[in-house]
Amino acid sequence: MTDVQRSLVLVKPDGVRRGLSGEILRRIEAKGYTLVAVELRDATPEILAAHYAEHEGKPFYAPLVEFMLSGPVLAVVVEGHRCIEGFRSLAGATDPTVAAPGTIRGDLGRDWGLAVQQNLVHGSDSPESAEREIGIWFADLGA
Ligand code: IDP
Ligand code: MG
């Protein structure tokens, strides 16, 4: 069975600011996935417009972009069998208040009462998204 996937993971600015980059990478590695690329980056409006194109027009879109520009992000490419689904499972639900304990968002995240949920991580949600997002963040890698 060859279902080796790559997923684009971001430690969002709240995670980097709170010093949780190492803890989040630790959980990915402890799960058994491989780190293919890890880079501390400043997002740009252009990168975010491409990355979050599906959310354009939603009420949290502008706060989301502003939040993602508020500090560096750790951009990561993760590899492993079914790692796209697997990382989403490690990350937990979008809303950190209800994200299950044991997940990154459930253990380390909370609601700060802001217009956008600061929920520590992004993870690609499908093979198509992963290919597209890896192309955005790591043009030299391919997917
Ligand atoms: P995901 O990150 O769990 O895949 P998406 O629906 O793709 O969630 O949304 C992208 C990001 O936008 C979320 O991670 C979160 O930061 C923010 N977001 C999504 N939905 C809401 C909402 O209803 N209120 C506030 N922020 C939201
Ligand atoms: Mg998403």
Automatic annotation (TrEMBL):
Protein's GO biological process: CTP biosynthetic process; GTP biosynthetic process; UTP biosynthetic process
Catalysis performed (reactions): a 2'-deoxyribonucleoside 5'-diphosphate + ATP = a 2'-deoxyribonucleoside 5'-triphosphate + ADP; a ribonucleoside 5'-diphosphate + ATP = a ribonucleoside 5'-triphosphate + ADP
Pfam families tied to this protein: NDK
Catalytic site: 122 (pros-phosphohistidine intermediate)
Its EC number(s): 2.7.4.6
Residues given in the record as ATP binding sites: 12, 60, 88, 94, 105, 119
Function field: Major role in the synthesis of nucleoside triphosphates other than ATP. The ATP gamma phosphate is transferred to the NDP beta phosphate via a ping-pong mechanism, using a phosphorylated active-site intermediate.
Family: Belongs to the NDK family.
Record protein name field: Nucleoside diphosphate kinase
Source taxonomy: Bacteria, Bacillati, Actinomycetota, Actinomycetes, Propionibacteriales
